[in-house]
Amino acid sequence: MKGRRVLVIGGGIAGASVASFAAQAGAQVTVVDAGMHAASRVPAALINPVRGQAGQVAAGALAGMRLTWALVDALEEAGVRVPHGRVGVLRPVPDDRTREKFERKLPADLPHRWLHPEERPVPLAPGWAQALWLPEGGWLDGAAFTAGLLALSGAEVVRARATAWEARSVTLEGGQVLRGEAVVWCGGSVGATWASERGTHRAGSLLTLNRAVTEVPVSFGAYLAPAADGGVLGATFEAPTPTWQEPVLPLASLRWLLGKAEALTDLHGPQVTGRWSGTRLSGLVAGRTASGVWRLSGLGSKGFLLGPLLARHVVGDVVTTLEG
Ligand SMILES: Cc1cc2nc3c(=O)[nH]c(=O)nc-3n(C[C@H](O)[C@H](O)[C@H](O)COP(=O)(O)OP(=O)(O)OC[C@H]3O[C@@H](n4cnc5c(N)ncnc54)[C@H](O)[C@@H]3O)c2cc1C
Questions:
Q1: CB of 89 shorter than 6 A to ligand 1
Q2: Of the candidates 215, 218, 208, 222, which has an alpha carbon nearest to the alpha carbon of residue 261?
Q3: Cα separation of 145 and 207, whole Å?
Q4: CATH, residue 49
């Protein structure tokens, strides 16, 4: 890949990870990023391999989690601060049936343990029959991690919106054309909508808090986690829409969110300092499309769990194709 130019559209976690691995492979990388509405700017993202209320474990979850932490370590070793906590994740479940459902999906090699009530690192509200402990999970600052990967990749970043792209070129608003040997589209929810695609977009919001409610992330329905400047309470809870929508204050949803969080643990103490809203796109595509443009998108709620791992696969395929 030495000397070959790779053009990446989008500088969220997908694009930053692609840029990072492409640069490691020796490519000269240019990232075109409008810098708007990136879901990856989420103030605290969970690194949680056991997903949702059904306990799904995505293929590659363990490898993805370990790669994300390895990248956090590499950034910190290089002097880039990424607020994070590799402190485990607690997944309370309401009843024995849900525990059984989770257990059926838990791979034997994924470190986990069901905790006795007295072992729980967080005092849960009454009614949680079981609690699953995922010791290798944790949280990280999405914006700092993404920006760190991009900075350390050494990629040239062009702050602009791409209006058209083909297998070997990207046209910017204003008409400038960039040329390279491979184009990787990583435009996320807003980018898919700018490209007039329809898909499954889900908005969600986090309340930022002046201090963390719990030092260990807790998640069932909603999640509570520490963050760089305190803590967060959040979820992706809006009904899916076919396109990205401008964020609005989600009043009804915030009531639901507070109810979910109150059901998890005691919320007294921390003050709300703000709100962050974002939209994630589902429908994973990680590979080459019919037009010859490569694509990594549709990371859903697993952008930080799987984004870097999938980016490494995509870059590996780009390298194989170019070096043929
Ligand atoms: C409320 C909420 C909570 C979440 N919590 C978690 C969590 O706990 N754990 C987890 O792993 N994930 C979580 N996610 C999901 C995660 O944030 C996403 O999966 C991930 O950020 C998507 O990254 P991306 O790079 O695909 O897209 P984005 O981060 O949206 O980045 C896309 C970028 O591309 C740019 N762009 C688009 N089109 C163009 C164009 N034509 N020209 C130039 N630039 C363009 C945009 O401006 C943007 O900067 C959460 C998401 C939300 C909304």
A1: no
A2: 222
A3: 20
A4: 3.50.50.60
Alpha helix positions (H), the chain? 13-24, 61-77, 96-105, 142-153, 188-194, 251-264, 303-323
R_g of the chain, CA atoms, integer Å: 20
Measured from the Cα of 44, ligand 1's closest atom is 8
Q: Is the pTM of this model over 0.90?
A: yes
Rounded Cα distance between 284 and 295, Å, is 9
CA distance 53 to 56: 8
* Residue-wise pLDDT tens digits, 167-193: 999 999 999 999 999 999 999 999 999
85: β partners? 139
pLDDT digits (tens, 9 = 90+) for 267-298: 989 999 999 999 999 999 999 999 999 999 99
Q: How far apart are CA 173 and CA 154, in angstroms?
A: 24
On whether the CB atoms of residues 147 and 17 are closer than 8 A, the answer is no
Owning domain of residue 174 = 5-323
Distance CA 227, CA 43 (A): 6
52 lines ligand 1 (CB under 6 A): no
Q: What does the alpha-carbon distance between residue 291 and residue 274 come to, in Å, rounded to a whole number?
A: 42
> Ligand 1 within 6 A of 32 CB?
yes
- Using the CB atoms, write b or e for 238-249: b if 16+ within 10 Å: beebebbeebee
Q: What total number of domains does the chain contain?
A: 1
